[in-house]
Amino acid sequence: MENDKEKFKKLKISTLLDLALIVPTSYNNTTLSLDLKVGEFGTFEATVENVNTHNGKLNVTFFLPKFSKKISSIFFRATPYHYQLFTKESKHYIQGKLEQYKGYLQMSQPKSIKEIGKIIPKYKSVLKQSELVELVSKYVNEKNLYADGLDSLEVVTVMNLHFPKEISHIMEEKHFKQRVIQQLKFIEAFNHVKKLRGKRTDYPAVRLLDGDISSFTSSLPFSLTKEQQTVIEDIQKDLSREDKAAKRMVVGDVGSGKTMVILASVMMALPHKSILMAPTSLLALQLYEEAQKHLSTSVKIVLVMQGRDSDDYTDADFIIGTHALLYKDDLPEASLVMVDEQHRFGTRQRASLEALVSNGEKRPHFLQFSATPIPRTQAMMQSELLDVSLITTTPFERELKTQMIGKQDFPALLTHIEKEISCKHQVLIIYPLVEESVEVPYQSLEESKGFWREKFDNVYVTHGKDKQKEEVLLEFREKGDMLLATTVVEVGISLPRLTLIVIVGAERLGLATLHQLRGRVGRNGLKSWCYLFSHFPKSERLQRFCETDNGFDIAKLDLKFRDSGDILDGTIQSGQKFKWLDMTEDEEVIERAKSRIVGL
Ligand code: ADP
Ligand code: MG
After folding, report:
1. Which of 225, 259, 287, 397 to mutate for ligand 1's pocket (most ligand atoms within 8 Å of CB)?
2. How do residues 203-261 score in pLDDT, each as one tens digit?
3. Which domains does the chain have, with CATH numbers?
């Protein structure tokens, strides 16, 4: 047993179904062939009729009694072993590919096998073939598979794959193969969901929250979208429970109106306290401004961030801040903790966040907001660990055109930029690097800024390592015409006058990043443009990106192009890799897997 544990570890697996899913990659069929099929692999009973050597090659003529035919075989690199084995009159079971040359049957370098009548699975694994076979024989059996929740058809399929009796049971007919793959997909999804389900732990809430939100919604200058309302209802249900603290992730594209969901949640929490954490001071400030604008003046809101004397927050209803919040030891206990732009926090900050909400027996309700759309399939998987709500639409249609451009389009681009700036709109140009590099065939921020400053006034420059970047962004928002930057602007600040973005070397970025960047323009319904400047105008990935605006569809595309060679940054989350399951389309399979588990 101990030993088996080691082997499981080596295989990086932990469950019986993990093992069952390591299916053979091929089979060695040693049943005797019923006919002589040229071009196919066969196994035959054979007697050596003649042996001779010619130019160092061993030439053996076999007689196949069943077919009364002769076949000749050449062994190019014959060893003493071959000479001993194929002596005249000796009997064999030979195996190899049957060929025909000038009307004569041939089999090049056949193997002489000892046992016939078997179909021997061949596995690809880190273990030795025999070790794996031993493990599989020990654990993969009908009883265990049933006990793990598979149905009879799936059990038969798995058993046939590992212990085939007839080759036709495995892979021969096409529709049959398709069915096997469907079942493997299901088993893979089922196994994964089962593992996740075991991992969710819930705690009782500090208290239930059921504050009235109608005064808030009725005072808004617009009505909430259907999806905003649905998410708010989901959250109302979560917060109205005392036995279980909420644990929900709200995923919505940039501009889908998540802030309103945050504010509605604050209203539900009243008269108790809410805390909201944002990844940057700029974003915290923006949220603070929005909260002040849309919440009634009777709600006491405070902003906590570095370099700003925070008001006394002990009697605040709603505390907004950056991760500086994590280091306050006098933070009052909140009943609701929220994190905006969750995807922007580093792993370490996420861990301390967890700590913020995991003191004691009872936990505050915890809501996270993310603007990195994930495919529905992934959301379905993730929802095993925490509840997930998706906002897939934006409150207003954005008039946004995405287009690939190259060197030859530069004059037209210049004209367009001039036109936007003359309308008091703003332009953003994203460079792949700050400094010049031989590895990157595009201009850098430093190389280009002189050019733009000569042509235009009010050109601002910032990048990820720029200590002043928040100040630069704030000043640009008010006074700038053009901003040159690296991908720092990804952080969700809103620049309402921004209508044109150029992304230089677009093929170097993941689709999720491109989509985030594109989300910066046209936030207030102004007609906008996103230009992807690239030396590779034929990139299918980028062309598809141009045609797709919905973040959830982008996430799907991203999965599809995951192995695409032209992505250099690390923005694509590695995620779970599946062997059979296709995360771009197998929603229905995951659905079934999830409902089977409910029934268990
Ligand atoms: P997100 O945080 O999801 O990126 P925001 O909450 O910042 O998006 O909303 C984007 C813009 O849409 C804001 O200007 C906001 O005031 C506006 N907005 C939000 N909900 C609605 C709505 N239901 N109808 C019209 N505009 C809305
Ligand atoms: Mg937001």
Report:
1. 259
2. 999 999 999 999 999 999 999 999 999 999 999 999 999 999 999 999 998 888 999 99
3. 2-22+124-176 (no CATH), 41-113 (2.40.50.140), 214-391 (3.40.50.300), 400-548 (3.40.50.300)
